[in-house]
Amino acid sequence: MVCVQSESRFALSSYSPGVKTKKSSTPGVTIIEFTENIPQGYSGPDIERRPVPLTMQEGKSTHFKVAVRGNPEPTVVWNFKAEDLSNSGKYSVYFNKTMNEHVLQIKKLTTDDAGSYNCIVLNEYGEAKCKVNLNIIEEKIKMNLLNPFPHDKSCSVPSPGKKEEKYRSENVWDILMHADKKDYEKICMEHGLTDFRGMLTKLTQMKKEREEKQAMYVKEISNLKHVAMKPDGSASFGFDMELKSPLLNIYVYKDGKLIKLSMDEDQKHQLKRAGKKYTFCIKNLQLDDVGMYKVNVEDVEIFVTEVDINLIPVEFKQRMKDVKCKENSDAIFECTISLPLPAEWSYKKLTLENSDKYKMRVSVDGLTHKLIIKDAHPVDKGVYTMSAGAGCCGAYLTVEKNQVAASPASKGLQINSKRSRWDFSDKHLMTKDHLKKKSGNSSEDDSSNLGGGGLLSSSADRLDDTAKNGQGGDKSGKDSSNSLDSVGKGGIAGIDGMNKDGMDKMGGLGTDDKGALNGMGKDGDSRLDGMEKDGKGSLDGVGKDGTDGLGGMGIDGKGILDGMENGGDRMHGSGINNQEGLDGNGKAGQNGLDISGQVELQNSSADGLTGYSDSTGAGTDGNSQFGLNDIDALSMPEDPALSLDNQKGLLGEDQTSNQNESASNQGVSTSDAYQKHKSGSSRRRKGKLSERDINELTEEQDLKNKEPARRFKSGLLDVHARKGEAAELCCVTTNQNAQGTWFKDDTQITSGDRIIAAQEGAVQKLTIQNVQEEDSGTYRFEADGGKTEASLFIEDPPEFDQDVLNQLGNKITLVKAGDTAIVKVPFSGKSPMKVSWYKDGEELFEDNRISIDNSKNVTQLSISNCNRKDSGNMTIKLKNECGMASTDMSLLVTDKPQAPQGPVEVLENSESCISFKWKAPKDDGGQPIEHYEIDRQQVGRKTWTKVGEVDKSTTTFSFDKVEPGKKYKFKVLAVNSEGISEGLVSDIITASRKAVPGPPENPNILNANSNSITISWTPPRNTGDSKIIGYIIEKRKKGSNTWSAVTDIPITGNEWTVTDVVEGLEYEFRVIAVNFSGPGEPSSETEAVFAREAMKLPGTVRDFRVTDTTYSTISLAWNPPIYQDNNVPKGYIVEMKTSGSTTWTPCNTADVGLTSYTLKGLTKMGMYYLRVRAFNDGGMGEPIELDNYILAMPPPVGPKFIMDGSVKGFMVVKEGNSIRVRMPFEASPPPQVVWLKGGFPLSEQATVTSTNDDTQLIIPVSQRSDSGIYSVTLKNLHGQESFCFEIRVTDVPKPPGPVTLDENVPYTVTVSWEPSKDEPLDDHLCYVVMKRDSSRLNWHTVGDNIYNNKFTDINIVPGRNYYFRVLAKNDMGYSESSDTREPWCISKQREPFTLKLPNYKAQNNMSAPEFIVKLKTHFTPSGCDINMTCAVKGCPRPEVTWFKDNITITDTANYWSTNVCGVCSLYIFGASSKENGEYTAIAENSVGRAMTSTRLVVRGN
Fold first, then answer.
1. Are 506 and 518 in contact (CB under 8 A)?
2. What is the enclosing helix (H) or strand (E) of 672?
3. Nearest to 791 by CA among 757, 760, 766, 769
4. What is residue 698's DSSP assignment?
5. Most buried of the four, 583, 637, 844, 1109, by CB within 10 Å?
6. What is the pLDDT of residue 1388?
7. Strand 1340-1346 to strand 821-828: parallel, antiparallel, or no bridges (unpaired)?
8. Is 775 in a helix, a strand, or coil?
9. CA–CA separation, 1064 vs 1068, rounded Å?
10. Which contacts qualify for 1459-1466: CB closer than 8 Å, 24 or more apart?
11. How many other C-beta atoms are found inside a 10 Å radius of the C-beta of residue 481?
12. Is 914:958 a contact under the CB 8 Å cutoff?
């Protein structure tokens, strides 16, 4: 951006004498007056309302507004960093007539725009200026609240679990400044601050600076409270603050924009004040209210807080519903919320992310959210929760097993080999080499394989034919670690170290071990849990009563390796006929843990997987992606057990089996398995298998044994192809003769011109020629009952046309200055396409000159009114989801050249020639310089004459047509094909001439009389090229321009008497030296002198005196001296010296012609000595001095109050209002002012300010205790005076209490009442009693100024009804009335009469229950007490019963319910997440039934 400095009057680096600086009534504004004498009706400029400091987001636009006054109308100028902003395209300056404001608009803010802006208002009498700060928040990755997700309906929701890196901006410091110390670490982690020590140092300095600024306006600030939600949906924050002045303004900003505050509770933003407490409320919190809130007093920051998006109340328009699905199918949860907020899905308190297992979708409007659980299994069942804003809801997933017919021929329970999540034909299948690599890189924390750690036991163990330190499996030793490894006390990873106190998740099962399958000891918890007698868990309770998981494998254990419901993830292994065990590769088992035959376990003393000692363990790595969740089932058949001699165990043929091959082939790593481990789910079964379960699993295994274990050697892989190219999908089947079918998005594919399906033996290929966007999707191949699928992705990256690239790269685009440059570039690629233009590496944005128009396949850049600075290298960048492309072009703007560079340097200056040189222009205008043109001007003339040209390579010129002694200027102009540049003008060059002498020095008048005048001089220092031969003396009359020579020939010597003078005339003289070359330059003229006789000195001034004094001036007066003949005084000179100085200093620079003078600019109370003397042409007269020093102070005056109409002796002030008492006075010197209340010093709330003319008492907020007698005393050296007055602080009195009437005396009534609550506080309070006859409407007073609480009224007429009312009264006014409830009447004696009452039918008041106040939704932190309240009516009284999730609630230690007169309350003490759910109150009576429900959400642990 280029800013041109404009020529304006405000660019003054210093001020001339007479300029005066003063402060404006507006804080922060400085006024400079150029003159003291401003005509009546005119005024200097001033700023009525200064601009407000702003904090804005980068990339946005902003405005500064200012209101000014002055006559004539002032001009407003803005500048920034010493540059005028009125001529720049980035800034717009204009006047808003409607608001009477001058506005500066700043477009597309960048970080370079941050800083201090100057606003200068000026007219011919002065200028006013102020500064305003602009803070810029850097661009960051920010969530789009209105549409937080892409418009693609199939897009995935970004995982809330992965927090994006936040920017470091000024906002983090604002948050830290007002946060508690305990929250520092959390805030720094959220915003990426890692230098904690540096942060604390900077924060301490910032707090110190903030406190210094706050001290200007604030006495104290405390009790800071950040944003908190209220049950009614509003939010509030506040603090306690005491201001130094009640006139200070309080501003609240949201993200840098000023918020309009109101005291009305119905408004959106409300500011409440109660004494020192300030509370800011935001009603009906919405998305637009999210942001940073800042409270300022004037321009000083006081408090900063933030409204977070998690505080926004959300209503679930459609809540999640429980889902039931079949195993291996997809489960979908869906809900709709009221606001477009980002949602977070969780399962078992863990956040879910987008993966192959979980897919999250959101509608275009951001309201409907879906969670898709792929290929659901029984282990996926449970509660799934979605959270958005301040709300959340959940639902339960139930997964039903697939039913398989039982085979009666099956006797033993066999492994279920039905296809699971890890189908070996799936694209997730991993090769052996890959598994080796993964196994080799595995670690304690991130192992991804199912290792083959040996299942060690005691010598009686029947599972793996290994001793206590046996070698079966991977490497099972005390300290070994690998996949299924570290079977020892200190083992790490795998199912290791199964000790007594093993901890959590199959992890090191020693005393302190942690990890995956845990604690297989006596007290082990969770997963592969306590394999002792009573153990429970996943690989559970290897004891008599063990249940769940690898259940009950103790002495009487008949459980199985459970939790493998319906064919969970293969742990196939060889039975009697296979030799590989759990980790061996049988004949049909590959890359897995396949067991094709029946697995029979001996029911001996070791029983199953028992016999674990402190040094033994077995299992898989806790962090494996294929752990115990993947074991389908291990049976406990009735067949004879496998012995060590004939079955080879579960882990190999013998201890010398090929362990390396075993270890490399036992892991299957998938992302789904990792997701299940991360979510903490395990595929477990509760309790022992029933006979029905055994039959189902047996038949499943029989069916499976008839099918090949694997259909595919390698599955399909995802393919990425460019649009227009060919794509090929390929898989390899196990059966070379397999015939299969291809599908795209569940639609069968038939071969055609573009799509060719081919088979080459076991290789199945699908080739698609010239792929297009519609070819993308999911492709599946099915053969022999198996299937494999993959996705085809079509990429269409951005691309430029090659002809356009060649044209842009080989040709420079030329544009003339002032014209419009238009560049149009076509392109191709997939939409949406982001197009960006760059110039010399900096991105271009649209403004008043630059326009960028992007259509589907064309981008166009238009730059109007081009200038040279628009030249440069242009880059066009294209970007879409498939890639990016860029190309460069050159833009050249041509113009006439700039002026040649100076200064002009003179090479030769003689009587006949002037030669000079210059430098070429800095910018040739984009076209080469053709030649230079030289013009000449003779000083004193206005015309320029062309004197020559030189070619472009020559930058010197010689001019030989000069006259000696003449003065010249030369101008050089550069010329190219676009025109002629501005001229470079030289300084004045004087042509040389012959060497004549210089001017004589110091001509002086020696003597003057009426006949002659004698002068003298000093010879010149420069005598030229020869010696001085004489001098010429010239004279002239004062005021004339004509000089005449005194002599005809030069004279010698340095003194001469001129006799050719006329008496009484005034003359001036000068001298010219002459050598052989001629006369030289004349000297300066002498002082003017009269041709007359010498004058006498003036006499002494008379009656020198002081007429007036102030703190900065002393006024003097005198009488002229007595004169005779020609000693008349011409003027006077006033001199002074300060105390301690011996030098007299003239006070007046100009002659004083009057006989008075005022000294100004003196020091207050300074001591000065003064004198005055007269002078004339004869010289200075004798001075006269004052007898004593003079003090710069007004004349002594004793203190005296000025009793005008504003001073009162008694004042009544309403409580809470401010008290302001001003007492004007006069006194010199300024008096000492003492304020007292009742003879004691004032309270701390009172503020006293005093000047030389008045003193003022201010109490910002009055209280009743401020009532009393106040006195103010003035005292100085010349006297003392006091004044007393009374202030009574009160309020409109509160009404009296209830009124009672009594007839103590016949035909009178005594009115009694309870005293007003203000009676003890106000001794001026009295009462007024009023009466009204029932026949009249007007009240009239019957008693006034009553100081007790009784009054007797005697004017009572029998038979009439009277009403009475009592009012309290004080100095402030009347209170509300207290009226009698019943009229007073003295009855007349009448005959008795009887009244016959009618008979009424009894009314039926029976009614059904109805809730007149229903339950409300509750959101509360964990640990708080909760009170749910509702109100019910009905007759007879209904009975109310409370339910939680349809279960009756009884009074316990956590719950307590009450029903008081229909108000029903349920108290929940110390609520936790267990109390989350739906609560219902049901009211019943004999007539009917009513119900109301609500939901309780407890946040936190």
1. yes
2. helix 671-678
3. 766
4. H
5. 583
6. 66
7. unpaired
8. helix
9. 14
10. 1462/1431, 1462/1432, 1462/1433, 1462/1437, 1463/1429, 1463/1430, 1463/1431, 1464/1429, 1464/1430, 1464/1431, 1464/1432, 1464/1440, 1465/1427, 1465/1428, 1465/1429, 1466/1427, 1466/1428, 1466/1429, 1466/1442
11. 24
12. yes
Q: How far is CA 316 from CA 373, 386, 1411, 1444, in A?
A: 21, 11, 23, 20
| Structural element, H or E, at residue 876 | strand 872-880
Render the burial of 270-298: b for 16+ CB within 10 Å, e for the rest: bbeeeebebebbbbebeeebbbbbbbbbe
User: Measured between alpha carbons, how far is 407 from 1052 in angstroms, rounded to an integer?
Assistant: 154
Place of tokens 């201010």: 1258
* Residue 877 token pair: 């960048």
Residue written as token pair 């509360």: 1420
Question: What CA–CA distance (Å, rounded) separates 159 from 343?
Answer: 9
| Residue 1439 in tokens | 């009975």
For residues 51 and 27, what is the distance between their CA atoms, to the nearest angstrom?
Answer: 11
Cα 1312 vs. chain centroid, distance in angstroms? 65
**Mean pLDDT in residue range 942-957:** 91
Which residues lie across from 878 on neighbouring strands? 835, 885
Q: Is the dihedral of CA 107, 113, 114, 117 positive or negative?
A: negative
Model confidence at 985, pLDDT cuts 50, 70, 90, reads very high
Number of Cβ within a 10 Å radius of residue 370: 17
| The dihedral sign for the CA sequence 852, 855, 859, 860 | negative
> Which string of DSSP letters, residue by residue, matches 427-446?
TT---HHHHHHHHHT--TTT
Give me the amino acid identity at 443. Answer: S
Contacts 24+ apart (CB under 8 A), 918-924: 918/955, 918/972, 918/984, 919/955, 920/955, 920/974, 921/897, 921/974, 921/981, 922/898, 923/868, 923/897, 923/898, 924/897, 924/898, 924/974, 924/976
Query: Which residues are 800's β-sheet partners?
Result: 827
Nearest to 169 by CA among 61, 56, 302: 56
As a three-state string, the secondary structure of 1202-1214 is CCCCCCCCEEEEE
Residue whose entry in the numeric block shows the structure tokens 């015309």: 943
With CA atoms as reference, report the closest residue to 502 among 491, 679, 449, 626. Answer: 491
As a whole number of angstroms, the distance between CA 1472 and CA 1501 comes to: 7
CA dihedral 414, 419, 420, 421 (to 10 degrees): 160
> What Å distances lie between residue 872 and 927, 978, 1265, 1325, 1498, CA to CA?
15, 19, 77, 87, 62
Range from 291-305, 324-338, 650-664, 1289-1303 carrying the lowest mean pLDDT: 650-664
Q: Percentage of the chain with pLDDT > 70?
A: 75
What radius of gyration do the chain's Cα atoms show?
Answer: 53
Identify which of 49, 75, 51, 74 has the alpha carbon closest to the alpha carbon of residue 63.
51
Q: Tell whether omega for the bond before 1229 is within 30 degrees of 0, i.e. cis.
A: yes
Whether 1047 has a pLDDT exceeding 90, the answer reads no
Helix (H, G, I), strand (E, B) or coil at 1459: strand
Type of residue at 1257:
L
Alpha-carbon distance 100 to 680, whole Å?
A: 67
pLDDT in tens, 787-808: 899 998 888 888 888 778 777 7
> Does pTM top 0.85 for this prediction?
no
* Rounded Cα–Cα distance for residues 657 and 650 (Å): 12
Give pLDDT, residue 710. Answer: 66
Percent of the chain's residues with pLDDT above 90: 23
Element (H, E) at 281: strand 277-282
CB atoms within 10 A of CB 190: 12
Contacts of 1388 (CB under 8 A, 6+ apart): 1358, 1359
Q: What is the DSSP string of 976-1035?
A: ETTEE---EEPPPEEPP--------EEEEEEEE-SS-EEEEEE--S--TTS---EEEEEE
The helix/strand count (H/E) of the chain reads as 8, 97
Kindly state the average pLDDT of the residues 1347-1364. 87
Q: How many alpha carbons fall within 13 Å on the CB side of residue 533?
A: 0
Residues 6+ apart with CB under 8 A from 891: 812, 813, 815, 821, 823, 870, 871, 872, 873, 874
